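To fix ideas, we quote verbatim one protein's residues and fold tokens.
>
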Amino acid sequence: MSGRTKRTLYDIVTFILLLCALAGTFAMAFFAVIRGGKLGEYIALAAFCLVALAFPVQVWIHELGHLFCGLLSGYRFVSLSVNGIAIGTRGVSFRLGKAYVGQTQMLPKNGKVSRSGFAFFTIGGALFGLIYGGVFMTLYFLVPITPALLFFELFAPLAIYEALEAVYPCELPAGRTDGKMLVELKRNSAYAKVFLSVIAAQGMLADRTYAEIPRELLFKLPVIRADEVAYFALAQLRWQYLFYNGDEAGAREQLRRLSGACEDAEVPEQVRCDLLYAERVLEGGDCVDQDACRGDSLAELRTRYALTGEGRAEAVNAAEKERYTGIRAVELKLIERADALKK
């Protein structure tokens, strides 16, 4: 079965599940009004409709499940984002217009990672959704209706839908579903090996520099497709590892490979800034994209300084505030390398 056929089947199955969830929610609301019929029930229904449209509770339940299971597995919290609201170690940020999708980022402490631990983190979202759905569906049938309880009960079908959608194994343009990742972990596939090595290295950078990361962790790995999310992360780690340890030629080679992989793929902002930085500083080219990297992330500030000569103080300040030791060290060195170009 081709990848396109699998995605089509995924779309059909998840659409049917969504219809079932919406039908279940409507049926629960309808019978709640029949059983109760008081003003409180109508207020609860109105509140549910408003919240469901503006604040996808079922997605938050799913992501909190990842967070809880990740903490139990010994992972370090990085960020949690849902519907344009991002909560991370650097505070809360808002990006309006985002779809109802969520993401929880966590990294292993001290670079210690296992397939079983990451599998528990991966299944956590679906586990929480099923528990929430099961508990509140049971309460709906066994406990007398109250407005406050009804509000939470109405999210039960959607929470179950969110869980089943996540555990369906499929590879999507945005990445693998939780179910597909569990399959990869069970098979100990090439992708799983690369992915676990990437997050292990990222976890080490919390309190170590690239000089302290074992080279084999990044370079003795199986080959995966160049359009994989894990490939972009690995290539970024590799070029920064080589640059930090004094091998600029090797860093340039890794960036050329990364540039080739980006030709037919949607390029993450971090990667795009790295490529522009390399074009101007490491390759010595005349990059004149003055409108590039206009955000306020560390990579954007560092790259904008390299491209335009503006904002060095802001870039240095952002780098010095970086909490991860390894990232702070390499970013300061990248700024120093841009300094040398301007002398």
